[in-house]
Amino acid sequence: MRLAIDTTELQGPLNLAAPNPVTQGEFTAAVAERLGKRVWGNVPAPLLRLGLGEFSEALLASQRVVPEKALGSGFKFEHPELRGYLDEAIQPRV
Question: What are the backbone dihedrals phi and psi of residue 37, each rounded to the nearest 5 degrees, phi first?
Fold first, then answer.
């Protein structure tokens, strides 16, 4: 967001996403690994639709978002990879 505020050359929407997208499965596995937990399987899509109704589509739909404007402007991401971010954001319990 700071890039959008400080850079007048960038116009229009700006994707606030890391440059290396991951799937929901990869995200869940990485968070579980960082927390030292196990992932016990998936919730079937029909069960999500039954329990969450229309909101389930937000969880089931797939989008690959890349911050092209930020990358094109030369912005350097502090944590371009998910695991590097998780290592800093989630401190293990002692």
Answer: -115, 165
Q: CA 78, 64, 56: angle at the middle one, nearest 5?
A: 115
SS3 category, 85? helix
Contact 73, 7 (CB under 8 A): yes
Chain segment 44-71, per-residue pLDDT in tens: 999 999 999 999 998 888 888 899 988 9
C-alpha dist (Å) from residue 73 to 14, 44, 62, 68, 77: 11, 41, 26, 8, 12
- The SS3 assignment for 67 reads coil
Can you tell me which residue has the tokens 């039954």?
50
Q: In sequence order, what DSSP letters do the residues of 16-46 get, joined into one string?
A: -S-SS---HHHHHHHHHHHHT--------HH
Rounded CA separation 75/57 (Å): 32
